[in-house]
Amino acid sequence: EEQNVKEKGTIRLVAKVTGNPVPIVTWFRNNKTLLASPKQTQLFDGENIVLEIKEADSEEDAGDYKCVASNNVGTATHGSRVTVDVEKVSFTKLLQSNVEMKETETVTLECETSHTVSTKWRHNGVELSGMDHRELVQEGRSHRLIIKRATINDAGTYSCGVKDQLTSCTVVVHGMKPDFVRKLEDFEVKEQEVAILEVEISSETADVTWIKDGQPIEPVPGKLEVEKKGNVRKLFIRSTSVHDEG
């Protein structure tokens, strides 16, 4: 659950809990116990839980909130991310304009904003979710994009934006000469069975050429099919016959 409030507005988080005996409720912000303050109100009537924070400030109040209800039987939690929308924000530290790296390396792109706000990262104009090998990390005003085990496909223009502000970076990924990690082995198969020839290479993006008796093999649907998955390359020979020996 996410909540966005205007600066100087009111944050209101609610939850419900039941338990016997009546649980003890504790609020956390960014995994630290939420300390009482004059602008904050915490209510719990045994079932309904309310946290209200007035005069919201992006530095003091934005973050990940968690409500923990516990008794001697167990614990229940409920969380919410709160962002505070400030009227004006700028980048106080820009992304490095150019970054060069090699395939399989890890690189971190980092920038900073004048306030604690949420940003959006894009690669060649497409918004990133942070759910793949490219991890998005925000800690206060710091915003980081971590690209793990980069491939050639990770090259391009990356940008971090908030409101009408944008900072960008060009990433160049140098390909590595592929090597065979696991080579072909001699293979025997009965007629009409499927023969699967398999190799593993050091690159996830490099292509291989399959050759039989010195001649490149062209895929034939239903007979000769190739597969490229991660670092593994496979050749499927279906309905084998003596003509497939080589």
From TrEMBL:
Subcellular location: Cytoplasm
Domain Ig-like: 1-83, 87-172, 178-246
Annotated keywords: Cytoplasm, Disulfide bond, Immunoglobulin domain, Phosphoprotein
Highest taxon in the source lineage: Eukaryota
Cytoplasm listed as a keyword: yes
GO CC term (a single one): cytoplasm
Gene3D superfamilies on file: Immunoglobulins
Parts of the chain that traverse the membrane: none
The UniProt record lists the keyword NADP: no
InterPro entries, alphabetized: Ig-like_dom (IPR007110), Ig-like_dom_sf (IPR036179), Ig-like_fold (IPR013783), Ig_I-set (IPR013098), Ig_sub (IPR003599), Ig_sub2 (IPR003598), Obscurin/Obscurin-like_Reg (IPR052385)
Protein name: Ig-like domain-containing protein
Organism field: Graphocephala atropunctata
